[in-house]
Amino acid sequence: MTASGKKVRLYELALENGRSASPFVWRIRYALAHKGIAFETVYLGFTEIPTVFGGKFKTVPILEHGDTVLAESWDIAEYLDRAFPDHPPLFASPGELAVIRLTDAWFMNEVLRKCFACM
Question: What predicted TM-score, i.e. pTM, was given to this entire model?
């Protein structure tokens, strides 16, 4: 339970070895650890992801905190800073967040997408 009394649940993909293969889930695990937020892990298989929350989400991570449910890792990270302002911040300023988001968008489009296009 968090200080607000609401449980934080992180839904993630479970591989046969029990580890997560999603760097987007890792991003949120690191964010939760940095902020010192206790959470419960809910493991899902690939085919189970669209069955939770009425099929609203098709990918992980999914974060559930009270009535709030989010599925995009950057949206989750920003939410964590808003919902837990008494914990260490993830971003020092709005400018830093903007630069990080820009860098991430560039990396995803210019590097990762081209790497996977070669396969």
Answer: 0.85
